[in-house]
Amino acid sequence: xxxxxxxxxxxxxxxxxxxxxxxxxxxxxxxxxxxxxxxxxxxxxxxxxxxxxxxxxxxxxxxxxxxxxxxxxxxxxxxxxxxxxxxxxxxxxxxxxxxxxxxxxxxxxxxxxxxxxxxxxxxxxxxxxxxxxxxxxxxxxxxxxxxxxxxxxxxxxxxxxxxxxxxxxxxxxxxxxxxxxxxxxxxxxxxxxxxxxxxxxxxxxxxxxxxxxxxxxxxxxxxxxxxxxxxxxxxxxxxxxxxxxxxxxxxxxxxxxxxxxxxxxxxxxxxxxxxxxxxxxxxxxxxxxxxxxxxxxxxxxxxxxxxxxxxxxxxxxxxxxxxxxxxxxxxxxxxxxxxxxxxxxxxxxxxxxxxxxxxxxxxxxxxxxxxxxxxxxxxxxxxxxxxxxxxxxxxxxxxxxxxxxxxxxxxxxxxxxxxxxxxxxxxxxxxxxxxxxxxxxxxxxxxxxxxxxxxxxxxxxxxxxxxxxxxxxxxxxxxxxxxxxxxxxxxxxxxxxxxxxxxx
Length: 504
Hints:
single chain, mainly alpha, Growth Hormone, Chain: A, disordered C terminus
């Protein structure tokens, strides 16, 4: 008899429950990667919507005085180098208005999305949202194909896309929270939350590939990707482990033991035949939590307000970093887009480190506070060092990405899951979607304000934008001080309680 290959031994060493967990982890990761992938192109094409036409004009003048008549048609096209209506002097405000329209709609819709998501099947809710998002993302790109120059057209698409994209975050966090308990939640969700940065990186690379030749494809391709992932979601997403129990119990042939069902979702290594499980909703099943009830969970308001300012900083980088690099480092749109991905690479590392450290210390708020404290001087350093060449800029992009996105990632994942399964809820797991939506919805208010303020302040110089970011970072830190003090106090009081227990 031939020996079993080592790879097969590794595969069979995992039980089927672990395989389903892995499937849920990977699938939700890819689903939300596609969400961020479809959001990123708008930041990449900004420098293409409004170009520095003076250099093009100089090239045209020089060429017209030469005898090379064949090149005149292409230079004539380049003369009209900005895309109307973004060819005016207030183009930064117009670009900021597009960001604001998307993010404001996202913030408003998020509060409703969590409540709706608790009352509808997550798989269907998420599928519809992804298909609609794919449609609106493609429509934005079709504005280039059909030569549309109406600001109202682009703003209305941004508003609609912002609303439908709110279906994503509460849904995927609820699914991942259903499958993974509190053990090592910070590490697991830190790894899982890297989908944000991975999506930004892929979105930058895809959009950058077509930005100079046909920026419409910079939206159409990501739109097709997120719509395709919506179809994958419909066929493969498992909302809760209990869904598998009911499926296999109902599909078991008459007279067949439910032994196979237990193999699919084993609780231990000893398999004992039991009766088929039929899931029936009982009258005592907990109902969806109210909005005010979710706000009363300890820590929800503190972390929500902290995320407002933390997300303000993160999304300002998300929407304006490529344009800033274009102006500060004098790079073209593609090079700036590629370089901006380093910020997201740092964000991946920062999110994982925040999760690992908070798991080890058991202090989510303290971990966030330390990273916010370090981020403020780093932001100031980035505004200064970006003028000293490519090497220092790369280093500061990585460091800034880690310190800015670390707290943001921790709050939106592990903290939201912790609060959504807080002991005060007495096992009511249906509150997770609402809690997640409240925290991320409040953060999205900051995400809407950040790019808008950046568009207004950048007209007076980029230094004012960085001062705004540092102020927001400091306010996020202040809002966590009460929880930090509580965490540190609980650590000091713990040894006393142990001694008292031993005495009794």
